[in-house]
Amino acid sequence: MSGEHALFTAALGLTAPWQVRDLTFDAEVGRIDFQVGFAPGSRFACPSCGAADQPVHDTRQRTWQHLHFFEHRAYIHADVPRVRCEHCGRTSQVAVPWARPGSGFSQLLEAMVVALAQQMPVRAVARHVGLGDDAVWRTLHHYVDTARAAEDYSDVTAIGVDETAARRGHHYITLFHDLETGRLLFACPGRDQQTVGHFVADLRAHGGAPEQVTAACTDMSRAYIAGLGRHLPQAAITFDAFHVVQLANTAVDEVRRQEVKREPALKHTRWAWLQDPRQQKLGRITQLHHLSRRRLETARAWRLKEALRDFYRSQSGRKEAESLLTAWYRWARRSRLAPFKRLALTVRAHWDGILNAFDSRLTNGRVEGLNAHIQAAKARARGYRTTRNLITMAYLVGAKLSQLPAAPHTPTSGARAA
Length: 418
Fold this sequence. Notes:
Residues 94-144 form the Transposase IS204/IS1001/IS1096/IS1165 helix-turn-helix domain. It holds the Pfam family Zn_ribbon_ISL3. Residues 44-88 form the Transposase IS204/IS1001/IS1096/IS1165 zinc-finger domain. InterPro entries: Transpos_ISL3, Transposase_DDE, Transposase_HTH, Transposase_Znf. Residues 159-393 form the Transposase IS204/IS1001/IS1096/IS1165 DDE domain. This protein is of the alpha/beta class. It has three domains: 3-145, no CATH class; 158-240 and 363-398, 2-Layer Sandwich (Nucleotidyltransferase, domain 5), CATH 3.30.420.10; 242-353, no CATH class. It is 45% helix and 19% strand. The chain contains 17 helices and ten strands. It has helices spanning 3-11, 107-117, 122-129, 133-149, 194-205, 222-231, 241-259, 270-274, 282-292, 297-313, 318-333, 338-349, 351-355, 357-360, 365-380, 387-398, 414-417; strands at 18-26, 31-38, 56-69, 72-84, 91-93, 158-167, 171-178, 183-189, 215-218, 236-239. Strand 7 and strand 8 form a beta hairpin. Helix 7 packs antiparallel against helix 12 and helix 10 (297-313) packs antiparallel against helix 11 (318-333). It is elongated, with a radius of gyration of 29 Å.
C-alpha cells in the first residue's frame, strides 16, 4: 500500500483487512472517489450465525456517500464480500465497518446529519451535506428510533403532560416528560385521553412501571384528567401554575374586551394587563399604574389575576395555601365580574389538584421551555410536512438521547470500532 493510500486509509478510519486501494479526484466536478478493498485471503465472520473465519464466496459492488473532503464531495466504493457459512449453510453479505446495513451513506456522514439537525433546519442540513430532504429525514428517523429503543424509563415517578401545535387546523401532539430529569419521554399525535394510554404502553416497553408514577403535572384539560385517572390512577394530579394563571389572564382579557367598548383609554393596553409586571418595561409599568388607579373593571380583574399569581409565589404549606385560595375564591365570586365568577367555579372544581402544587412542588416549567424549543425549531424550518417529522425533531432536541451517534469531530467512528 502506497503512502498516499495509507494516509487516506487512516483518514477514513479503516482497519485491517480493509484499506484504500485507489482514489480518483476530479477537480472540475469537485469529487473524490475512494476504492476500498480487503486484503487477499481475508476471512470474515458469518453475518447470520456469527461463526468466525468463513471464506469469501463472492463480492458485490456498493457505493456510499461520505463526508466532504474539504469542499469536495467524497464517495466510497467497495466490492463487498459475501460468505457462504460452513456452519449454517447460508450465503450472507458482510457488514462494512464504515456504514450501517442498508444505508447509502457513511456513518460519519449520518453522524454529521444528526449533529447539525439539532441546531439547523433540515433543509439547511441537506444543502450543507449534499443530500435531499427525504434522505436527511430517513436518517434522523432511524437514529432517533434506535436511540429511543435503548432508553431506560425504570426510574420515572413524576411526569408532566402538555400539548403543542403540530400545524394549522387544530392539529396537536401530546408530550410526556420526566419532571425529575427534564427529558422528553414520549410524544404522539392528538390530545385526547387515549394519548395517556399510548404513553403507558411506551413506558412499559422501556422498562418503566406505571404503578411507580405517583405524580403528574398537567393543565385542566378534561381529556388529560380522564386519561390520567384511567391509565395512571395512583398518580396525584397537580395542575400547573402556568396554566391556572393563564386562565386568569384569559378572564382579564375578556373583561377588557367588554369594557374597551365604553372606555377608549383601554385601547392598545392588552399586554399591559397580561404580562407579569416584573417583566415589563418602564413605559408600560407607568401606563398600568395610571390605568389601575381608575375605577375600571379591567383594573379590578387585573388585581384578582395578580393575587392568584402571588398565591403561587408564596412559599406556603398546603394548609396556609388553602386559606389563601379560599380567600381568593370568595373575592372572585363577589367580584361582579362574570369571567372571574366562572373562573372561581373552575378553581373550586379543581381544588385538590391546585393545592397539590404545595405538596408536590411540581411545575411544567421545563415542559413549557421544551415546547418553546420545539416551536422555535418548527419556525426555523417553516413547519414540518408530517407529524412524524415534528415528533422526531421533538425527541432530537428534548429527549436527551444517550445513544445518538457522536459528532464526527470526535474519534468514535464505527469504522475504527470494527
